[in-house]
Amino acid sequence: VQLQASGGGLVQTGGSLRLSCAASAGTFGKYASGWFRQAPGKEREFVAALSRGGSSTKYADSVNGRFTISRDSAKSTVYLQMNSLKPEDTAVYYCSARPNSITSGTYTTGYSYWGRGTQVTVSS
Prior knowledge:
Blueprint: E1 3-6, E2 9-12, E3 17-23, H1 27-30, E4 32-38, E5 45-50, E6 57-59, E7 67-72, E8 77-82, E9 91-98, E10 113-114, E11 118-123
């Protein structure tokens, strides 16, 4: 499974960005997808997840209500729409995939496949 993340950049506080994660055709129908981020000096943390069927989502408390994970199956792409960005959202963002469902048990671990990160910087 190969994942390619893109869409990062520099944005002011309160602004928006949309990250994309492209994969080979059919990938996201077989795997749950997730977004994680890692800020300088911090551990990588869970941001959002989307079920294999695309109907169930999970979010970290810190982004709930501001970020939205979605999928375009025809394009085999998962998105992370980020609104009302804050300086503390600054991090390298990674997309990921896992074979297990996110609707039962933990959904913040167990991701087997990772794309390269994309930098998001929010200026104050």
